User: What shape does this take?
Amino acid sequence: MEKVIGIDLGTTNSCVAIVENGTPTVIPNRGGYKTTPSMVAVTEAGKRLVGHIAKRQAITNAENTVYSAKRLIGRKWSSPQVANAVATCAFRIVEGPHNDVRIQLRDRIYSVPEVSAMILQEMKVIAEDYLGQEVSKAVVTVPAYFNDGQRQATKDAGQIAGLDVIRIINEPTAAALAYGFGKKIDRMVAVYDLGGGTFDISLLEIGAHGVFKVISTAGDTFLGGEDFDARLIDWLVEGFKNEHGLDLKQDRMALQRLKDSAEKAKCELSAVKETEVNLPFIISSGRSEALHLQRLIKREDLEKLTKDLVDRTIAICQSTLHEAGIEKEEVEDVILVGGMTRMPRVQEQVAEFFAREPCKGVHPDEVVALGASIQGSALLDESTEVVLLDVTPHTLGIMIVGGYFEELIPQNTTVPTARSKIFTTVRDNQSAVKILVMQGESNRAEENELLGEFILTGLRKAPRGQVEIEVTFEINADGIVSVHAKDLETGAQQSITVTATSGLTPDEIKEMIAESKEYSVERRSSEEFEGARQEAEKLLGDIGKLFPKVEEIVAGSDFGKEAIEKARGVLDRARGALERKDVDALKEQIEALQRTQRMFKGVISKTG
Ligand code: AMP
Assistant: This one.
């Protein structure tokens, strides 16, 4: 029978699981470990190493050992996160041809999905060794907060690894699935996931009939265990500098050793109250004298150094609950996921915040892969009762005239989903429209992420606003977006599956936005807007007529000048709302315009 594996492709470690005879099980690797480091290396002889053996040689081959590729996947070269990785990683990160990120190992350059594919392939082999048969299908997990580009790139990685990724699911959903599977429970749970590179918090409702409905999800794709390590490294480097006047960060090999020891010390401090970092011959003093690093670290030191990081996760929990309109008390179970949740301080703070002890008996490193395997088996075998209702983590929309972002699918909408809106042309006889598909939360288009673009041509000739274009967004169960635009009159259509590889720089995006003015669309004006527009335009006209007179009358007084400035502000805001076709803002401005008009009339009547 065909098998499908579940893979948790982690930043630091990866894990593979399968459902056997109805029971989800983690598959150990050849070394007997249930998780495999997400590390890839190429040796001097050109041999590729993955997992534990890559990790073991990382110190002596730091430049050719990749870790945390997940932090780079689907990201653009020009992003700040990549700049940060370039500055801190021991391996070489280079710019790809599409503003994408590449990694150099020895004399070959790899794309990030290629590197992730090596890890996925390793997981595939682990499963095949165990099962004694070939495996070609997988469910792969990603952080809920991954955007479309990151999901696509993960799927690409699967394909490169020779795996048919039948579904991408979110890590917290997978965790909840593993937790609630077969339990016949009906409750609200929070999944707090602090891994090596990312933090996620998700609120889910688990229904008795195998329904897992995500209510809300949020997180930070650049907050994780590595940041805890970095604090410890900085502290050790600082201490060493004070003692010996030497900067260990200047020495790649020393830095790599320090990284390893810092992480090890951090993990040890989860079990013991103090530990020692001991690195003999870490660096040479320059007087052919080797120096050692030896330092005692207490658990409280680590807690102090990383307090703000833990606080940040709690703040995200708070805002997520608030935005979802859920009280802390409504959360009935808290599931901890990710290796970092082994840190006692993290557990304490989570327990304190939710006022309840997190669930025991859920293995934070394995729960995600187990959930993925359950989803995999449910997709293959229809008798398994599992329905996942996930949500989209980002708002999706298009750019409209004026460079504004018009939302089509709001954040935290249950997927799969499809939404349509009707837009109109902005110029007379406009023959084409360009649809810029974007993801993000800002109402300024340029501040959001551009996912893709396409042009719908051959519109019929008509005055502005008369041609109606229906734009439909669809998000499938993998969280991957496709968009169609249709001329409602002629039926002409265009569609794209948004691809991650467009790789544009912010300047290119700005250029595209400027250039696309020619092809812009705007929201179809509703009756409500039409009414408001007429009223606002009448008020603007009337106030405009009174303006010179009022200005002349009040010219002498500071108070009067201030009032004139205020009135100008009101007019500007009203014009802005008109331009954006923002009904709510316009209504607000109408009231302000009415006040201004009364004030102006009052001034004139008193003097005249
Ligand atoms: P994950 O991405 O879920 O594999 O989480 C990996 C992160 O958890 C890494 O930053 C590890 O250093 C960290 N981690 C693993 N075990 C522990 C532990 N016992 N205590 C503290 N952190 C840990």
Observations:
- DSSP finds 15 helices and 29 strands in the chain.
- Residues 500-505 have pLDDT under 50 and may be disordered.
- The radius of gyration is 29 Å.
- The longest strand covers residues 274-284.
